[in-house]
Amino acid sequence: MVPKGVGATRGILFGSRARGDYIDSSDVDLVYLEGLPYTEEEFERLKQTSSVVQDALTYGIEIRPEP
Asked: What's the predicted TM-score (pTM) here?
């Protein structure tokens, strides 16, 4: 869950924990989102060049704030 007071509209868990191939000592990869700070063109470029963005879009698990 996204903690109250963070100000994000949602979060995405990604990386090994989202893919299910983690080990006990794996870290947690989490990004909190509040809007999209990129133009559509910039985001399309990021999708092609950023392995973090590719991983989050492919395997990411969306989480939402607590009600």
From this structure: 0.69
Sorted by sequence, the CB contacts under 8 Å of residue 47 that are 6+ apart come out as: 53, 54, 57
Sign of the CA dihedral running 29, 33, 36, 40: positive
Distance CA 45, CA 54 (A): 11
Decide if 53 contacts 67 (C-beta within 8 A). Answer: no
Residue 55 CA to residue 47 CA, distance in Å, equals: 9
Tokens read off for 64: 């939402």
Instruction: Provide the mean pLDDT of the chain.
Output: 84
Could you give the CA distance from residue 15 to residue 18 in angstroms, rounded to a whole number?
6
